[in-house]
Design a protein that fits this description.
Length: 248
């Protein structure tokens, strides 16, 4: 195994341990020698992993106090690793609601910019993703992955670096939302025309129409997620493959 993989695996292990609650807020991580023995890695690897956790705002280090877990509001929630770890240990209602609020702020603004700035390549990517969604509905297959690619391609088309970074954080919400919609009877089929309306408005270079179209999609997804949260049914686990649409 390469040094990079050893570092990545060690970082993932420690990150998941913190976000799962094994190491509580304010608690100390075990000393380096104990972590080296537990994980079967060198001190150098442990130190590099801890440095990465410090950079992500998850822990702090200092003389005589060791490595302590910081409060959640200090964590970098725009870091893809932090989002991935949270997704793997389980999405919470508060986490999803925060993301929903951010989505309603960010995605409509990004779609307006996409309607003004999208290149031919951007539109081709979005069309290909839309076609994958349509084909999954008609023939069966991985609708969720194509749906995620559709939204990510249009966020990328905004040509705004900050919004592109936010799209990484939004991916956990989008994936959860799409999985929930696929479990609703005719959910994907009924949402397909709404996706088409978004894409057509972007192609037509009409920011106002594009914004209204994406808001209809977002509000529908919000209602689906709130229904699941209020029913206390189990949320999808994002460490599992996306569900497949099956055609009778």
């Amino acid at each position: 195994m390469s040094i990079k993989n050893v570092h990545g695996n060690t970082l993932d292990h420690l990150g998941l341990e913190v976000l799962s609650g094994r190491y509580a807020i304010g608690a100390s991580l075990p000393p380096e020698p104990m972590l080296c023995t537990e994980l079967g890695v060198s001190r150098t690897v442990v130190r590099e992993a801890v440095k990465s956790l410090v950079a992500k705002g998850i822990v702090s280090t200092g003389p005589k106090v060791g490595t302590r877990v910081l409060p959640e509001d200090r964590w970098n929630w725009f870091d893809p690793d932090v989002i991935t770890w949270q997704s793997r240990v389980g999405l919470t209602a508060d986490f999803l609601r925060d993301l929903q609020e951010m989505r309603r702020i960010v995605e409509p603004a990004a779609i307006r910019l996409a309607a003004e700035r999208a290149t031919k390549e951007d539109l081709a990517d979005a069309e290909a993703a839309y076609e994958g969604m349509r084909r999954s509905i008609e023939e069966g297959g991985d609708y969720v992955t194509h749906d995620l690619r559709f939204h990510q391609s249009l966020l990328l088309a905004s040509r705004n670096r900050m919004m592109v970074q936010m799209s990484k954080a939004l991916s956990a919400l989008l994936r959860t939302s799409f999985e929930i919609s696929t479990k609703r009877k005719d959910g994907p089929r009924s949402s397909l025309p709404l996706h088409r309306a978004v894409l057509d408005a972007v192609i037509a270079r009409n920011p106002e129409r594009a914004e209204k179209a994406i808001l209809r999609l977002i509000d529908g997804a919000h209602d689906d997620i709130e229904e699941i949260l209020n029913s206390r049914r189990k949320l999808p686990r994002l460490d599992q493959p996306a569900p497949q649409i099956r055609v009778a």
